[in-house]
């Protein structure tokens, strides 16, 4: 995934010419377009640059020489290969095969130089014609299809259709391949074959229905039997005549108009948004002007293409160094959803397939293959013998709501409580948060998200707990201030693996005593009733990226499952009595919406605790970040609580798009891709980086990696171990931690931590807006004094190193508010 800005400048129109196939006339069209702008009359002076990113075959037959011969244009070819074959084959005999990143960087450098040159002269415009090789999906030197290689810049496209027999199908297929990848097609061109196949007439009608203009251009002269001089004269006459005709004026006008429209749209989006949109998690009084709203043009891989804040798209960039759009690393993984990168073509294709096969079909009392396949693989993949049923909903909050309904019904039925008349509470952890629907909010203690919600009641009790962090290069478990007597003094560990070594740490009588004493107080003395334990394994996300001591969470589950909350009103069924996986105490619900599905490096974050919940909820990464979909997985003993003769006994929950097949099919493809990453070599470098070396300098983990052991035997992160350790020593940092794709940095704030702190705001803004001194711009989110960053599952090490460097540079630059 290339980190290059989108190809959009005020004084340069960059257009990419794709062909529906080889031999369709891409170079002829590029030459016609160039010749037209060279001869175009008017007040605007046009400069032209023809760029061929990849060329194969003899130099004498190269497209750039042909274009220069008939137009005199400035031409460039970025990579040339001798053999007249597909670039991925031709590149094999070369000394160096350019990566996709390198190819994009070279192309962008050429365009940037053009933009700089053209911005210097008033009344001057440039056109860059970038002609690809072969068809839309023809492979580049690396083997990646060209439409995927050049997607980061998302240049507007002119598609040259196929005029030959079968060309209608290939042209439409090529267009759909571009559209499914998020390209804008400015125009479709088809050469008139004299009415033999009438492709152009059909294509004009077809694309008109899609809102894409299609143009017919005059047939290319027949050069068979002509001498070299005659051929040259014929083609010169062709270009001289037709580049001046009305058809080419219409094509050029379309390209110019689309450029102007794109600039205007980007310039007005923030204003239109400020007028019409009510943003989530936003105090709109803080949005004083439209420029405070971040505008995205597109996204690809780990990066947004973002409009420069406060910069008009109609202004002239006199320096030419800074593009109108720039790439910003998606540091929050788009609210924790991104797993396989923005614009992932495999997921887009999966969504298109399911949309074409099903659209949406209702799910009550029915089924379809994507839903049952996804349910089965989740139930197996979580390796939790308790879970037997999958309930679909739309997002994490709703999944939590469903899980809470399940747990409360199970508890009320077993203990003969009437939840409609009695106050049945939830047990959880302080700082936890499970979503924005009313029921899910009630399962959290009062906080900035819910305490001013008028229906919020806070139905539960939330335990304090020790936290895990790295400070000054040492891992430690620290008690909340003033609670050392309950939890003990700070404990230090040589590695994060040791924190999770439950065999070595053993049970914690101190933790168990604290939990039991509180339960005695609230259950036996205050006679409160509780129907579930609800918690996020390992990290509390929205509550402030808090890393809970995993031994405390294990202790809490064990105590709750053995605690006598009430005596069953009647014996459970014989089947459930004999089932070792029947819930006891109260049902245990794990909220893995944030921490599950490889976010922390494992398929399930429950596996870190070596505890099996009775209910497990998942969302966000489930579809790789493409579509909303969530699941609530439950045990048989939970399911049986809704078994009865009356419909009112059933779980009466659902929504119109329950188990929508598009989301389910995409989720299956997403899980395929993530499992391949987890089982292959993609993460091995990260895992080795975090391996704990023994006295001989090697590690048991490294040996396991060599033997292809599963990547669940050790704790690791995509963020550099050395870097995380360095951050923990920084004078502006209180503590850090990294696990899986998550990096959390808690900044020091003399006025206090938490959501009222503004300590991280200045750092957040500097990372996003100051792109002149760092290698990368970073879009991030903050939670009070905490700034966090997340990689996707497909992030490249070099890109993460750039993000790490940017964060450290901004910390060193004293950009935090109050400095």
TrEMBL record:
Keywords: Aminotransferase, Pyridoxal phosphate, Transferase. GO terms for cellular component: mitochondrion. Pfam families: AAA_26, Aminotran_3. PROSITE patterns: AA_TRANSFER_CLASS_3 (PS00600). This is PLP-dependent transferase. SUPFAM superfamilies: P-loop containing nucleoside triphosphate hydrolases, PLP-dependent transferases. The keyword Transferase applies. InterPro entries: Aminotrans_3 (IPR005814), Aminotrans_3_PPA_site (IPR049704), P-loop_NTPase (IPR027417), PyrdxlP-dep_Trfase (IPR015424), PyrdxlP-dep_Trfase_major (IPR015421), PyrdxlP-dep_Trfase_small (IPR015422). It is found in: Mitochondrion. It comes from the Eukaryota. One of its GO terms (molecular function) is adenosylmethionine-8-amino-7-oxononanoate transaminase activity. It comes from Trematosphaeria pertusa. Gene3D superfamilies: Aspartate Aminotransferase, domain 1 (3.90.1150.10), P-loop containing nucleotide triphosphate hydrolases (3.40.50.300), Type I PLP-dependent aspartate aminotransferase-like (Major domain) (3.40.640.10).
């Amino acid at each position: 995934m290339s980190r290059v800005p989108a190809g959009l400048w005020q004084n340069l129109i960059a257009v990419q010419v794709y062909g529906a196939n080889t031999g369709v006339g891409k170079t002829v069209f590029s030459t016609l377009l160039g010749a037209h702008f060279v001869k175009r009359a008017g007040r605007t002076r046009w400069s032209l640059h023809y760029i061929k990113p990849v060329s194969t075959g003899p130099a004498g037959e190269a497209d750039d020489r042909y274009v220069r011969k008939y137009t005199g244009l400035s031409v460039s070819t970025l990579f040339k290969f001798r053999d007249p074959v597909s670039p991925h084959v031709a590149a094999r005999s070369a000394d160096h095969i350019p990566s996709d990143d390198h190819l994009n960087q070279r192309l962008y450098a050429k365009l940037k130089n053009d933009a700089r040159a053209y911005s210097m002269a008033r009344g001057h415009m440039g056109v860059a014609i970038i002609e690809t090789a072969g068809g839309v999906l023809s492979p580049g030197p690396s083997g990646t299809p060209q439409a995927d290689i050049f997607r980061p810049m998302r240049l507007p496209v002119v598609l040259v259709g196929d005029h030959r027999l079968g060309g209608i199908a290939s042209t439409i297929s090529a267009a759909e391949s571009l559209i499914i990848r998020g390209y804008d097609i400015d125009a479709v061109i088809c050469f008139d074959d004299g009415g033999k196949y009438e492709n152009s007439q059909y294509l004009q009608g077809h694309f008109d229905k899609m809102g894409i203009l299609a143009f017919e251009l005059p047939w290319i002269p027949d050069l068979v039997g002509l001498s070299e001089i005659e051929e040259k004269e014929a083609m010169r006459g062709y270009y001289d005549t037709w580049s001046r005709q009305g058809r080419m004026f219409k094509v050029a006008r379309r390209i110019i108009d689309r450029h102007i429209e794109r600039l205007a749209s980007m310039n007005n989006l923030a204003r239109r948004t400020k007028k019409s949109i009510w943003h989530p998690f936003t105090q709109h009084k803080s949005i004083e002007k439209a420029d405070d709203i971040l505008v995205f043009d597109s996204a690809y891989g780990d990066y947004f293409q973002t409009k420069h804040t406060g910069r008009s798209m109609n202004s002239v960039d006199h320096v030419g160094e800074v593009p109108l759009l720039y790439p910003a690393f998606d540091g929050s993984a788009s609210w924790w959803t991104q797993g396989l990168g923005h614009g992932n073509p495999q997921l887009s294709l999966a969504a298109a397939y399911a949309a074409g096969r099903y659209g949406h079909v209702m799910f009550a009392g029915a089924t379809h293959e994507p839903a049952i396949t996804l349910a089965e693989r989740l139930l197996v993949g979580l390796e939790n013998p308790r879970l037997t049923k999958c309930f679909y909903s739309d997002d994490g909050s709703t999944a939590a709501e469903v899980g809470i309904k399940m747990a409360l019904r199970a508890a009320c039925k077993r203990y003969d409580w009437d939840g409609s008349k009695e106050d049945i509470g939830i047990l959880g952890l302080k700082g936890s948060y499970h979503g924005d629907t009313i029921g899910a909010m009630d399962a959290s203690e009062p906080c900035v998200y819910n305490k001013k919600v008028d229906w919020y009641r806070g139905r539960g009790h939330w335990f304090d707990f020790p936290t895990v962090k790295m400070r000054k290069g040492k891992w430690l478990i620290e008690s909340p201030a003033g609670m050392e007597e309950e939890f003990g003094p700070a404990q230090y560990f040589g590695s994060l693996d040791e924190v999770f070594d439950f065999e070595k740490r053993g049970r914690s009588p101190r933790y168990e005593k604290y939990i039991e004493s509180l339960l005695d107080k609230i259950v036996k003395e205050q006679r409160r009733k509780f129907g579930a334990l609800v918690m996020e394994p390992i990290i509390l996300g929205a509550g402030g990226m808090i890393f809970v001591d995993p031994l405390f969470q294990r202790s809490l589950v064990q105590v709750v499952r053995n605690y006598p909350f009430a005596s069953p009103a009647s014996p459970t069924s014989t089947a459930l009595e004999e089932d070792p996986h029947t819930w006891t105490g109260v049902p245990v619900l794990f909220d893995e919406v944030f921490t599950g599905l490889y976010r922390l490096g494992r398929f399930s974050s429950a596996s870190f605790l070596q505890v099996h919940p009775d209910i497990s909820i998942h969302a966000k990464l489930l579809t790789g970040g493409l579509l909303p979909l969530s699941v609530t997985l439950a045990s048989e003993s939970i399911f049986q609580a809704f078994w009865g003769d009356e419909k009112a006994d059933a779980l009466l929950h659902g929504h119109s798009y329950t188990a929508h097949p598009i989301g389910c099919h995409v989720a299956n493809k997403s899980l395929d891709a993530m499992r391949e990453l987890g089982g292959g070599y993609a993460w091995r470098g990260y895992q080795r980086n975090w391996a704990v070396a023994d006295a001989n300098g090697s590690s048991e983990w490294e040996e396991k990696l060599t033997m292809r052991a599963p990547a669940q035997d050790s704790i690791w992160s995509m963020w550099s171990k050395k870097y995380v350790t360095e951050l923990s020593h920084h004078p502006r940092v209180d503590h850090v931690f990294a696990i899986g794709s998550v990096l959390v940095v808690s900044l020091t704030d003399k006025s206090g931590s938490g959501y009222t702190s503004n300590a991280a705001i200045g750092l957040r803004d500097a990372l996003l807006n100051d792109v002149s001194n760092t290698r990368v711009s970073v879009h991030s989110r903050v939670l009070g004094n905490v700034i966090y960053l997340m990689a996707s599952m497909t992030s490249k090490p070099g890109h993460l190193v750039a993000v790490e460097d940017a964060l450290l540079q901004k910390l060193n630059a004293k950009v935090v508010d109050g400095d």
